[in-house]
TrEMBL record:
One of its GO terms (biological process) is leucyl-tRNA aminoacylation. Residues 708-827 form the Methionyl/Valyl/Leucyl/Isoleucyl-tRNA synthetase anticodon-binding domain. CDD domains: Anticodon_Ia_Leu_BEm, LeuRS_core. ATP binds at residue 637. The lineage of its organism: Bacteria, Pseudomonadati, Pseudomonadota, Alphaproteobacteria, Rhodobacterales. This is Leucine--tRNA ligase. Its EC number is 6.1.1.4. It comes from Citreimonas salinaria. Residues 221-369 form the Leucyl-tRNA synthetase editing domain. Belongs to the class-I aminoacyl-tRNA synthetase family.
Amino acid sequence: MSRYDPASIEPKWQAAWEQAGTFRAEIVPDRPKYYVLEMFPYPSGRIHIGHVRNYTMGDVIARHRKANGFNVLHPMGFDAFGMPAENAAMASGGHPKDWTYGNIDTMVGQMKPLGFGLDWSRMFATCDEDYYGQQQALFLDFLEKGLVYRKNAVVNWDPVDMTVLANEQVIDGKGWRSGAPVERRELTQWFFRISDYSEELLSALDALDDWPAKVKLMQANWIGKSRGLQMAFGLIDGPEGHDRVDIYTTRPDTLTGASFVGISPDHPLARRLEKDDVELAEFNAECRRMGTSEEEMEKAEKRGYDTGLRVRHPFDTAWELPVFVANFILMDYGTGAIFGCPAHDQRDLDFARKYDLPVRSVFVPAMGEEGTFILPEDGGPAYVPPKPETVRYVAGFAGEEAQTGDAAIDAAIDFCEENAVGQGVTKFRLRDWGLSRQRYWGCPIPVVHCDTCGVVPEKKENLPVALPYDEDGKPIDFSIPGNPLDRHPTWRDCACPACGAPARRETDTMDTFVDSSWYYARFTAPDAGTPTDLKAAEYWMNVDQYIGGIEHAILHLLYSRFFARAMQMTGHLPDKCIEPFDALFTQGMVTHAIYQTRDPQGRPVYHYPEDVTLREGRGYLADGTEVEIIPSAKMSKSKNNVVDPVAIIGTYGADTARWFVLSDSPPERDVEWTAAGAEAAHKHLSRVHRMASEIAGSDAPETAEDEPLLREMHKAIRDVSLGVESFGFNAAIARLYAFTNALGKSRAGAGVKRQAARALAQLMAPMTPHLAEEMWQLLGGEGLVADAPWPVADESMLVEDTVTLPIQVNGKRRGEITVPNDAPKEEVEKAVLAHEAVVRALEGGAPKKLIVVPGRIVNVVV
RNA sequence: GCCCGCGUGGUGGAAUGGUAGACACAGGGGACUUAAAAUCCCCAGGCUUCGGCCGUGCCGGUUCGAGUCCGGCCGCGGGUACCA
């Protein structure tokens, strides 16, 4: 009998699938299709165990749907543009293109041995000229339809490296390489008009029934629809052209508690005032030195600058309020100006206490709800109850005295509109999507700047506008600061597409989120001469099951939803594709301990897991140095805590790796990689292989044990099918362990055992496809198990004759009874009351209540 | 800061509002073996006066019954618009 040897059986079956074209996806008009897609990887250099988990999940779904008769599309590609390639070129020389394609080769070579049922013929990388050329064509069509425009926006500027920094490259307000304080700089940049679709992207979430509720909630909050009031506060003796400050508020019911007006440092009034006020100019400059991220803005200490100017309250012209410039007010949201009501906003209260501004409550808890309430003006915290809660308005001006915040807001808006002091408006938090990046390794924005014609779209026949590889005859040198496209000796030079005069190319490239916003559509026709092929899109779209990390819950998924709409509008997708992902599953991340030591400066130094030896919960380097272990950390290239699956496959085989990543945790939750788990998985698969070999060689006659095994088989078919369909992979695997144990113990005859073992092979096939093929062949299965129809449970074999009911007394388990499956309720009650533990508890009396949940449980209340 | 999750034995985890801890890992005991490896079998939440009692991050609530639903905390994670 042969041992389980994945190193020989895995390549054998991979070759068999390859030769048979098992996973080639071809359009077959009459067959139902199923499109499974996992978020494609960034080519970081090597695959990690997170990829294995993610793609194994997709493969389980794909193989299961194929077995259920669907024509399955399951493609793979690479999200290949982005900063790491440029960072690598800067850090260790070389060219981003060579680095990226080298990584892709490596990763494909690492993925193929995993035996995923992928149609590799459709593979592309977003940095392929063919792909980004088609993306440029999309951009031009979007431009023509007015879906793209230019405006100014701020970026993080590193004055030493002379480059724009990403938010993650700004650390404590300083550039990550240069250490120089970061400045905010305004540049003219391209934007997609995603905010035009705010309402649509919000309301369409309702129909996404097979998306996780949490993702829809996150998107809804991100889009942030709010009904509020816009109104003007008259400015007293303001500079020329500034006679009012327009504010936006979602709490107009608190207008009578206003104690100041705050404006953003980027507000036109602030910009005007700083010209004559050195101190304010310094304050604003300091605000602008902050990073551009929302997190940083919000976490920063709330600071303000009293402009000395005053405004009149719209309700009472005698009531004057000071105007502050405040660092926490965003120019991008609302009007860039607010009124502060310290009593009902903690941030405003902190601000008021800092700058000694008045605090005046507008409402207090409802009668009888006061409890230990302390007024904010008496030192209590800001009183901010949920809007649906009823409160008592002590300084109300519209509606009832006792009313909910929601009702008060409506009444306040009505009041302001009737008195012509304000206007009810709906606003969204969602901003337009800035797509310009001042970097080399991205899709060039296909426009030309002409001195006479201005900004001119490139002609489609001139696409792709390809990235230059060389500079002065040599590969571009990334050790020189600045954008290589900007400084390239010839690349920028071109003829104006409109007038033919010498002109300059746009040197900005596109955000890599653009690349990933339509790749799912390109997979349906990866070689088309246009971005999509409508016939192929019509057949394959939408993605039936999309699988990816929760970290993409908002940006990637929202951008893709926008892009699908924009592509539909420009004729690149059929109408039915505006929501491209029918079902979404967000898998958890794979975590792994971080091993770190410190350099002489106290900065962390991260070590690869393979360089660390674990002994009794502590970790040591080869030279004996102990490392600090930070458990369950997100895997990150920069932290060197990425597990390498190649070694796992080499030791145990792909099926073991696949089995383990599914078995150890529920798929939506994070999983911590452990070496012991892989060892255990391998032992189990060896055992299954051994059992299959034994059963294949047995000729034991049929026995009385045949039927119990068949019952177990049908129950396993039912439970595993359900598990696979509902992403309960770990539960399905637990069930397969139990079924394997039952098969191992069974004394059934060879015929029934073979039947059960073939079912086991089929049920395991989505997870461990190579082993399953081997078993299938040993056990006399016909053809490939990958092509075999999914087994169906026989309902009649699932029905049990008797059922065991636990008996509770006052909700606590005290015993159990076994009754016939179809016993009438009266009979069950009689049996329960006769039970020893119940008799003892009743002490001769009658139960207060007797609850019988048929087939489930009995509860006696005494 | 704000938005969204998650929290169950030594460990990973199971459990349509209905027997908490399935299935595994690590551990203990046994069989086989000259011995070891491999394999197979058994035990296993804590406490206990052996009647039971306590247990799903903490506090409270709803319910005949709560890991599950509701409210309030604590801890950890994801996102926070230029990481992908």
